[in-house]
Amino acid sequence: MFQKILVANRGEIACRVIHTAKKMGIKTVAVYSQADKTAPHVYMADEAFLLGPAPVADSYLQIDKIIEIALQTGAEAIHPGYGFLSENADFVRAVGKAGIIFIGASADAIRAMGFKDSAKKTMQMAGVSVVPGYHGDNQDPHFLRTQADKIGYPVLIKARAGGGGKGMRLVHTPSQFTQKLQHASREAQSAFGDGRCLIEKYIPHPRHIEMQIFADMHGNVVHFFERDCSVQRRYQKVVEEAPAPHMPDALRTAMGEAAVTVAKAIGYVGAGTVEFIVDGAGDLHTDGFWFMEMNTRLQVEHPVSELITGYDFVELQLRIAYGEPLPCSQSDISIDGWAFEARLYAEDTQRDFLPTAGHIRHLSYPTEHTAFERGTVRIDSGVRQGDDISPYYDPMIAKVIVHGATRCIALNRLQRALDDCQVLGCTTNIQFLRALSRHRGLVAGRVDTGLVERDKDILTARYHPPPRIHCRFGVHWRIGVIRHRHA
User: Fold this and answer.
1) Angle subtended at Cα 237 by Cα 424 and Cα 77, rounded to the nearest 5 degrees
2) Catalytic annotation on 297?
3) Of 279, 287, 303, 452, which residue has the fewest beta carbons closer than 10 angstroms?
4) Which of 227, 297, 343, 378 is catalytic?
5) pLDDT tens-digit map of 127-185
6) At 276, phi and psi to the nearest 5?
7) In what order do the strands lie in the sheet with 4-7?
8) What does the alpha-carbon distance between residue 413 and residue 410 come to, in Å, rounded to a whole number?
């Protein structure tokens, strides 16, 4: 096994990788920007090195500097986490050229799945269904509008590159098409350096269900069942659960087989997620799902799949990258209970979920929680009390993850855990998450990607916390005042 690895990331995912590496006896090297010089991942690692100023282009995207540090410290492999360089094929090639192992997918696999249009063509050739639409190269606006007319409205304009909802527009009528195409293309160009778009038929009540897969270097591919990521705001996930509610066994089997087919079609190795759009208008059925895209990395929401299967996915990544075969076959993997994850962000729900920054004066979680480990309540975070939420990076504070024997038990634990999470010093989405966890649709398991948008006014309404929360905040504030007066 590796003796030392470098973690080319920050925040929660860097802490997550370092945690598992320590359990396995592997030394770790952290990298950080000037803004992160006192961040938790810096102190967790055995060694830490400054990359540069706060902007990501000057720090976490500095490929040559990261590789130089890896060589200097004797790190045998680099774990990219998610985001930043995790799906950058040029980075993967540069790492390999330097004689270092990349803990993730190959450059060829990343390129094959990196653009939605080419990925869909590959899937069609492999016999996997894709959402009807135009995935070609012709980007003439008049031609694309003609294609939209043929597909039938409503249609979805999607950037061929990137993700996170950027470069995506829903079009209900032909008169809206040209303007929304321009907006989507400009946004995609700004975010990804690629303004090209594809056009897809919009599924009226779409559910976003994804399959977690792992593949080793010996030709073995397995899936770890599905996650439902339908609860989104601004096309970005906010609450995930595993398994998916109301999922028939036949559909689970069909989607699992399709995900494995996708991985085999591109000779995939490592952790990956195959994302599907599922028709959620009524009961789920085997001819109502379509390939959407593949993420060639570990996902933010991977903990819910860890909790229901009992496997440490970062450990699997490390073992696969080292050349070991998968420790399990498909028949060894089973579903145990239910899990939810809610993403606690520094963001203003009153201003369309815009990111916020600030100094965290107080931060507390449920007393019984674990960190990065299996438990009834698990908190994965790279932020501590006293830290600043920087405007330069993703504003995630923590992932609140729960597990229970049944969906009802798990959801009750999520509600209670969110009630017990307290943050002072910056605006967060905690009130929104508390309301969302009690939303009638989520409680019933009747979710789709439009749930938050439909009920946004209710979910983001001003919230009055229970008296015990007022009391805790009041005590904390008074103690702070007393300490300040006697300082």
Assistant:
1) 90
2) yes
3) 287
4) 297
5) 889 988 998 899 999 999 999 999 999 999 999 887 777 899 999 999 999 999 999 99
6) -125, 150
7) 47-52, 27-33, 4-7, 77-79, 101-102
8) 5
